[in-house]
Amino acid sequence: MTSTSDPRDLRAQLETLTTEAFRPELSDIDRLPTLEIARLMNGEDATVPAAVAARLPQIAAAIDAVAERMARGGRLVYAGAGTAGRLGVLDASECPPTFSTDPSRVVGLIAGGPDAMVTSVEGAEDSGELAARDLDALDLTAHDTVVGVSASGRTPYAVGAVEHARAHGALTVGLSCNADSALAAAADHGIEIVVGPELLTGSTRLKAGTAQKLVLNMLSTITMIRLGKTYGNLMVDVRASNDKLRARSHRIVALATGATDGEIEDALAATDGEVKNAILTILAGVDGPSAALLLAESRGRLRVALEQAGD
User: Fold this and answer.
1) 175 CB-near residues (< 8 Å, 6+ apart)
2) Strand pairing partners for 148?
3) How many helices and strands (H and E) does the chain possess?
4) Which of 21, 172, 208, 274 is found 20 to 30 A from 300 (Cα to Cα)?
């Protein structure tokens, strides 16, 4: 679906969108003191969590559906243009170090490809066909989930991604910041976070972008909790790839077990630095290979592995 709309039609469409609305009361904002502008902007940002809270039932339903697909081996794919696309790529890129997921399990697609992360790629967001090609390159399956992200809810790339994914049997989520959006209507799960007009007219990297980041954080984080990637609120699947994360791994094992530093170091050494395995060796009194086997049998769920070890 490549956009071929008359520019006048597009302008008319934009004028109906809450995210594009002009606020005359802010027309002299450039004349205000810096502190007053900062207060105004902070006040605007403070309204975003309430807008997200109003859609928590829809968000939770989408998360449960995503987790069910991912538990069967599916992937979570974000697709968007501009700020929305960048936020999807950001959320996807943070899953491997936080949850030790394979980079292919949570994927961010941005209209125009990697170059669009830092520069504008002309016309990319207007092409639904481009979204279809990007998804076809992933060999999309019915176990996968595609989340279209678009503040306006009309971006052809995001809408095209959802339509193409749904036609292939994948689960679809449409995340928008306008009510009655084409994106939400095209998806199995429509999530519309209506944050209202922006401080700067049409600058949806502001409140809309903040709302999108909050929801994407929920989608990935709570899905990973549902998949057993945490133990309580501890990131037990964290990948210790640098000194800070190695120190964090040690602290997580300490918080989970109450063991001494020496016991923790021995457990981490016996399990090649795997936090879950180290916790299991300490709490269940098993060796490294036994911990690995228990976790494999429990599909990586530490609580289940602990229960099995106690049987």
Assistant:
1) 84, 147, 148, 149, 150, 183, 191, 193, 212, 215, 216
2) 79, 174
3) 15, 5
4) 172
Distance CA 216, CA 225 (A): 14
pLDDT by residue (tens digit) across 85-144?
999 999 999 999 899 899 999 999 999 998 888 887 766 777 889 999 999 999 999 999
5 secondary structure, DSSP code: -
- What does the pLDDT average to over 297-307? 94
If you search the block for the tokens 């949850």, which residue do you land on?
99
Mean predicted confidence (pLDDT) in 195-214: 95
How many Å apart are CA 240 and CA 218, to the nearest integer? 23
Task: Give 2's pLDDT tier (boundaries 50, 70, 90).
Answer: very low
| Exposure class string for 99-131: b at 16+ Cβ within 10 A, else e | bbbeeebbbbbbbbeeebeeeebeebbbbbebb
CB atoms within 10 A of CB 169: 12
Q: What is the CA radius of gyration of the chain?
A: 22
> What tokens does 142 get?
């019915």
CA 250 to centroid of chain Cα atoms: 27
Residue pLDDT, tens place only, 245-286: 889 999 999 999 999 999 999 999 999 999 999 999 999 999
CA 271/CA 309 separation, integer angstroms: 17
Residues paired with 80 in a beta bridge: 110, 149
Distance separating alpha carbons of residues 146 and 239, to the nearest angstrom? 26
Q: Please determine, for residue 1, whether its predicted confidence score (pLDDT) is greater than 60.
A: no
CA neighbours closer than 13 Å in the CB half-sphere of residue 71: 15
The catalytic residue positions are 94, 125
Identity of the amino acid at 262: G
CA distance 241 to 198: 39
Q: Tell me the torsion sign for CA atoms 295, 286, 221, 60.
A: positive
CA-based angle 162:172:68, to the nearest 5? 155
